[in-house]
Amino acid sequence: MQIMMLFIREHLPIVFFEVFVVMFILLLYWLDGFRDMNTAIYSMLITLVLTGTFLIVRYVIRKQYYKKITNVPQKMEDALQSTGKSPEHVQSEEYIHELYRIYQLEAQELYAAQNRHLQFMNQWVHQMKTPLSVLELMLQDDEPLDKKGVQEEVERLKHGLEMVLMNARLDTFEEDMHIEKVDLQQLVMSVVNQHKRLFITHRVFPSVTLPENLMVTTDSKWMKFIIGQFITNAVKYTFDSGKKVYITADVTADTVSLSVRDEGIGIPPTDLKRVTKAFFTGENGRKSGESTGMGLYLADEICQKLGHALTISSTVDVGTTVTVTFNLS
User: Fold this and answer.
1) Is the separation of the CB atoms in 100 and 76 below 8 Å?
2) Is the pTM of this model over 0.70?
3) Average predicted confidence (pLDDT) for the chain
């Protein structure tokens, strides 16, 4: 009954229109002097029969489609059923199928983002327990408090907090982005000064060679985070004291390439293509025992959103070079 009522509501305007057309034509004939009522009645009956036949055939064709849309769906896959026979209904189903495909893609992206966030938080909480445990042991010790050791653990906590905050903000990146002209030398020196304690602790020294007044278009806050990740990795994977981290720039007519090169252990060729994948720690991550596998992943994601190119080259036992290329045009 519901199907029939839906069909009637949809086609009632057609019936009224047909009646109006017939009455209008008969009125014209009447005004023109035509007075044969038998012909008028015959014309109306023919019109009713043809219209009724048309509606019956149309109902039979559309019945399955009406049945589909009047039943309560049980699962999302019900949207993939194809019951339309008329061009309109076939096109409607194709439209719904495309919407379903878009929904599936968005749902998969959302699930992947939630899964990535959950996995990252689990790893982050596990790693943050280490410096907290060390600080707790220091406080329980009767010996005078080692300020240097405390500062090192606090730095590890600060780095972990910065990482988790940036990961959370990545989902709303566009709302937190501010593009402007930035002096690259001042930006790099600011990041180097923020990490001076890290350099001193590992006895690794920065070497910054950048031209003055070198302007690039970027977001200074996000770029500080990216360069900070490069410096942290460069120092963390340089196990020999007295080594250097070289920060240089290569300027062309259209681009500026900022490179951070270390003299550390390097990245094995088998790991090089995967270091920007989320949670990939590789052989070096297992050696240090402190890698979350998220630093270079976040850096790569941010570079893509800012329109910068990120490239990584490395040679085992020689060092690693990470380069961000800014497009001046």
Assistant:
1) yes
2) no
3) 83
